[in-house]
Structures are given as structure tokens and as C-alpha cells.
Amino acid sequence: MFIPSHYKNEDIDEIKDFVKNNSFGILVNQVDGKPWATHIPLELDADSDGNDMLVGHIAKANPQWQYFEENTQVLCIFNGPHTYVSSSWYIEEEVPTWNYIAVHVYGTLKIQTEAALLESLHKLVDKYEAGSKEPVSSRDMSSKTMRQIKGVVGFEIKIEDIQATYKLSQGREHDHPKIISELEERDASSKAVADAMKKQNTDN
């Protein structure tokens, strides 16, 4: 994706944390010569050699998986908080803009075995049930219930490139106090952008 140099984030640990915390992503490939996108959990994991990869699954009813040939090139998009920034918050006249965080991951895909799919589903459920008052485990579910696994296709994506945009009013640091205070009075996404701006200012 196009990333102006001053918005580019190359802190791989920060980017990996972002992907882990914003793992409901978009999987994009070509289906019958046209771009095709599916919104699904894409979990950051590691292979047996410790290399980073993404793991996910889609319904067999979704034709996208039929184009998952060995080493299929795919794009995974992860969106973070975003918000409108009013130029009324600037000291000097300027056009308004939009602040946001987004990560694009490029890699090659291969289909999982059923055993690998089952293990990845267990890990997915464990991750998101951890905060439940009465967590359930897919390991305890009946074989009848788990037969639904037959209706999905699991896959692993070997990560080849990660591109991260953190557009947080860089170059307008003199306006940050006002921008942050205004964003903190708005919705949850705006507040999250304000927090990211404060962190950026602290790190710098």
C-alpha cells in the first residue's frame, strides 16, 4: 500500500501486537480473475521453525477457497482505530484530515490438514473465551457438534511482507494537545487514536 515515509511504522513488535489485538481481518485474493475479500479472524501464530504466520478458516460454501492453490499469494488487511480530524483544532489554517492505523500482510497460503485445522480452532476458541464469565472449550464439545469442522477450510499464510501505516498527525506536533483533547471527547475509535498519539509522543 502507499505509505508516506513519515507515516510508516517499522517497529515489528508493535505491529505484531497490533495484529494480535485487531485480528478480525480481511483476506483478499483473486477469484475468477476478480478481487475477492472475506472478513474473518486471522490469528498471528508461528510455525514449527518459529516463523511468523497467519492462521484462519473460511466456509466451504465460500468459493474463495477453491482458488487456494499451493503457494497462493494473498493480502490480509487489519484495520485499527480511525477518526476524522477537524482543521478547527489547528493553530494555523489547513484542510481537515483522517487519522488511522492499518496493517497489510502479504504472504503465501497453503491449506491445513484437518488435524491442524482442529488445533487452530481450539486455540481460537481458547483465546476469545478467556474473558468470558463461563468460558467454554471446543475440546469438550461432542463429536456431533464438532462435525461442523467438515464445513470449513483451514489455511496457514507464510508471511513475506508487512506494511504498517500509523497516520497520527505527524508533522503537526504543535497541534497535538488540542487534537488529542478533542478526540478524547468523541467516540471510542477517536479515543483510541488519541491514545495512540499520546503513545507516539511518549516514544519519540
Structure description:
This protein has 204 residues and is an alpha+beta fold. The protein has one domain: Pnp Oxidase, Chain A, CATH 2.30.110. The chain has five helices and seven strands. The protein has a seven-stranded antiparallel sheet with strand order 2-1-5-6-7-4-3. The protein is elongated and about 65 Å long. The model has no long low-confidence stretch (mean pLDDT 95).
From the structure above, extract its key features.
204 residues; alpha+beta; Pnp Oxidase, Chain A
Q: Helices, strands, pairings?
A:
Elements: H1 12-21, E1 24-31, E2 34-41, E3 43-46, E4 52-59, E5 72-85, E6 97-111, H2 114-129, H3 143-146, E7 152-167, H4 176-183, H5 188-203
Antiparallel strand pairs: 1-2, 1-5, 3-4, 4-7, 5-6, 6-7
Shape: elongated
Return Rg in Å: 20 Å
Kindly provide the name of the CATH class. Answer: Mainly Beta
Strand order of the largest sheet: 2-1-5-6-7-4-3
Largest sheet: 7 strands, antiparallel
